[in-house]
Structure formats: C-alpha cells, structure tokens
Design goal:
Bound molecules: heme C
Largest sheet: none
Radius of gyration: 20 Å
Number of strands: 0
Order of helices and strands: HHHHHHHH
Shape: elongated
Structural class: mainly alpha
Low-confidence stretches: none
Length: 152
C-alpha cells in the first residue's frame, strides 16, 4: 500500500474508534418495573422453561449482562424488551393475558420455533428449546393461560 493509503486507513480506524466511543454516551434504560401479578403455573417445568427462554423479554425480571451496556446492542435489546413486555408480560399477567387469540398465536409462534428469537438463542444457548421441550411448553402454557381464563 502507498503511504497515503496507510494514512487514510489510520484516520479511518481512529475515526471509527472515536465514533464508537462517543456512541457509548447514548443513554440506556435498563429498568425492571415492579412485578404486578404472576401466572398460576400448571406445573414447575413450564415455569422453569419460560423463565429460562422467555423472561428476559416477556417479564419485569430481565437480566442485563455487561454486553447489554454496549451501544448498539443495548438499544436493540431495549427495543425488544419493551415490545416483548407490551405483547405478553409474565410479571403483569392479569393485564397482559389471556385471550383465545393470544393462546393461538403463542402455540403457532412456539411451534414454528420463532420464539425465542434466533439472535437471542445465539447469545443464550441455554434458552434453546428442543422440539420435545417446545411441545411441553406449548401444552403447559395453554394450561397456564386457561387457568387465567377460568379465574375470570
Ligand atoms: C429477545 C427477546 C425475546 C425473547 C427471549 C422471547 N420473545 Fe416473544 N416476543 C419478543 C418481541 C419483541 C415480540 C413482539 C414481536 C412483534 O410484535 O413483532 C414478541 C412476541 C411474542 C408473542 C406474540 C404475542 C402476540 O400476541 O402477538 C408471543 C406469543 C411470544 N413472543 C412468546 C414468547 C415465548 C413463549 C418465549 C419463550 C419461549 C419468547 N416469546 C421469548 C421478544 C422476545
């Protein structure tokens, strides 16, 4: 490479580092609101699977490990946690659950292995569900969601 190219490359790297550093000043919002109401689980295994694979985005008990402090990972996750809590929140169960439509959507989404989202499973291998676990999870969640419907 020519000397001019090196200078350009060095400038580019320095600029990128600076930009990345400045990005880190972006505010983060990693709050966990209080727990309002919890499901009446049909059994302990359903609770365990949901806590392992779904709670980070669908509850107010989100874990925020160190890499969630890095912009832009933090912004991506904050968005998913916010959107996830909005559609289904295991810590605000009475308000966010349950309708027949939600039960159907849950069964379809888990059955097609669309939840937890693929990028999340890469970061959290322990959240990966085998097809047998997915079957049990659907069955258990339907029973748990119907508990809620019965109580109304
Ligand atoms: C990484 C975050 C994340 C994890 C983990 C996660 N979800 Fe989600 N989930 C979302 C987001 C975000 C949405 C909203 C998607 C949208 O609206 O496009 C969603 C939507 C859903 C919906 C659709 C609700 C509706 O009525 O439209 C269901 C059901 C659901 N998730 C179930 C689960 C289950 C069950 C698990 C665990 C096996 C899980 N999710 C794990 C982020 C997550």
């Amino acid at each position: 490479m020519k000397r001019r190219d090196w200078r350009f490359l060095r400038g580019f790297v320095l600029f990128s580092l600076l930009a990345f550093g400045l990005l880190q000043l972006w505010p983060r919002n990693h709050t966990n609101p209080p727990i309002v109401s919890v499901p009446n689980w049909d059994n302990a295994q359903t609770a365990e699977m949901v806590q392992r694979a779904c709670f980070d985005c669908h509850s107010n008990e989100t874990h925020w490990p160190w890499y969630t402090d890095i912009v832009p990972v933090s912004s991506l996750l904050e968005h998913d946690v916010e959107a996830g809590r909005e559609v289904l929140n295991f810590s605000d169960w009475e308000t966010s659950c349950c309708t027949d439509e939600q039960i159907e959507r849950m069964a379809a989404i888990v059955g097609r292995d669309q939840m937890p989202p693929p990028y999340y499973v890469l970061l959290h291998p322990e959240a990966r569900l085998t097809s047998e676990e997915r079957g049990k999870l659907i069955y258990g969640l339907i029973a748990t969601m119907e508990n809620e419907l019965d109580e109304e």
